[in-house]
Amino acid sequence: MFGCKSLTNLVIKPEIGLEVRSPRPQINLTRELPKPNAYAIAMDDEYKEIAFNEERAPLNKGVWREKVFNVSSERALDVEVGTGAGHHFAYHAKKYPERCLVGLEIKYKPLIQTIRRAQNGGGVYNAVCRYHAFNLDQLFGDNEVNNVYIHCPDPWVTPRKPRNRVVNRHILGDIYKMQRPGSFLEFKTDSREYFLWALEEIKLTPYQVEFQTLHLYGEETIYKKNNFQTGFEKIFVNQGIEINYIKLIK
Predict the structure, then answer these.
(1) I need a surface site. Which of 25, 135, 199, 240 has the fewest CB within 10 A?
(2) Which burial class, exposed, middle or buried, applies to 12 when counting CB atoms under 10 A from its CB (0-12, 13-18, 19+)?
(3) pLDDT tens-digit series, residues 141-159
(4) What are φ and ψ of residue 149, in 5° steps?
(5) What positions carry a catalytic annotation?
(6) Rounded distance, CA 40 to CA 37, Å?
(7) How far, in Å, CA of 29 to CA of 36, rounded?
(8) What is the tally of helices (H) and strands (E) in the chain?
(9) Measured at the alpha carbon of residue 79, what is the angle toward residues 191 and 246, in degrees to the nearest 5?
């Protein structure tokens, strides 16, 4: 579920009260692991053509279609930020086999689970990369991406943690530049606190809101009908926890 737990990327300057970006967060290098597990090994061996570590992934910036998927620049390329175990990723790969799909994860096990699920489901134009969500702009160039999915990221609800939330004005601004006109960004979370906070961040971006709701499963809408319910969502809904949802358009 929490596929994109973020490190500190934003800080508050108390003397002026302005939010600014801090130095980029870094993750450990796979090649420096003293004892890489089977999933880390699989990423750079069995799946190396479609699973990219933190050093190889940025080399695809601007050329994902041509270099990785061997398709024309007109082919749709979607991105899922934080794939978790890859259930939605595999669903998307099967439902839209003609669209390219790149997933981001940090942990090795869910990363490999994700690409395996997609392949086992018949997916062709799919790839994953081990990368920090706050550094998306190092992976994709301007106007390179179509639709973006951010499902149930870590809500970071403790007092000092909101700066770690991936859905913030800065990351949204980066994604907006990466996306092609007419593309959408889909964000949903079980955290009402996070969602309301994110709505204020969204107001500071160029995105247009197509639809938003505080109770996705409480209304009979096309968005509920088309929604892929993750395992965690099912648990939350059964517990009476509402799912907050918004769809943004570039």
Answers:
(1) 240
(2) middle
(3) 999 999 999 998 888 777 7
(4) -120, 130
(5) 154
(6) 5
(7) 11
(8) 7, 10
(9) 35
